[in-house]
Amino acid sequence: MQLRFVGCGDAFGSGGRLNTCFHVSGRAANFLIDCGASALPALKRLDIDCNDIDLILVTHFHGDHFAGLPFFLLDAQFARRTRPLTIAGPQGIETKLTQVMEALFEHASKTQQRFELNIVELVPGQSQSFGAVTVMPFPVVHGESGGPFLAYRIEAEGRTLAYSADTEWTETLIPLAHGTDLFIAEAYMYEKVVKNHLSLKTLEQHLPDIGTRRLVLTHMNDDMLSRLDDITHLAAEDGMVLVF
Ligand SMILES: [Zn+2]
Ligand SMILES: [Zn+2]
Q: How far out from the chain centre does Cα 203 lie?
């Protein structure tokens, strides 16, 4: 399995990094995790064929994770996509998607796609399979608006991957990522503890319990990015490829 960081930035463009979007592919699996506002040009810059992507998993409805969908769908329509597409995310995703489509491209939500488009609500604790990919959603803690907020533990082709999404520390992250081959964790702050986001120092305290085989940090603010030279953990970069 291969994961490519199409974008690993926060909502503020820190470090010039693009909004969150990860592309995961294997023998059969081909999906995105999150589709932030900058996702479509970022995918094209990396020569990733959007029309081969079967599934987009959305963690929450903040623009840096979700607002790329209208562009992705519009491009699929104009590119005469025929392959079915599933978009799965938290409760309310169908309404949120309609709203963001209408806000950015009026009447676009009423356009009948040439391809089959399935919108699926994911419920914490209920695993769901999409072809070769099985997803277990976990609830995380990320404030009052833009939710529900889900982190995902994903199994595909004998490999396990977890993504914390945006969250402050919650014990849920332990079963989410325990024993995974790859854990992509938000490290928004370096050590300061804030609401709604995770700091590296907090995360480090729990790494023995989490017990992932490989940790990668993402969604870092300017302060965190300025300390990367002093950090021993692997930190994501836009375009970085990991085989796991
Ligand atoms: Zn974010
Ligand atoms: Zn967020």
A: 19
Distance CA 219, CA 234 (A): 13
* Predicted model pTM: 0.97
Distance from Cα 114 to the centre of ligand 2, integer Å: 31
Q: Are strands 215-218 and 234-235 parallel, antiparallel or unpaired?
A: parallel
3-state SS track over 101-154: HHHHCCCHHHCCCCCCEEEEECCCCCCEEECCEEEEEEECCCCCCCCCCEEEEE
pLDDT tens column, 36-88: 999 999 999 999 999 999 999 999 999 999 999 999 999 999 999 999 999 99
CA of 65 to the centre of ligand 2 (A): 7
The burial of 70, by beta-carbon neighbours within 10 Å (0-12 exposed, 13-18 middle, 19 or more buried), is given as buried
CA of 123 to the centre of ligand 2 (A): 18
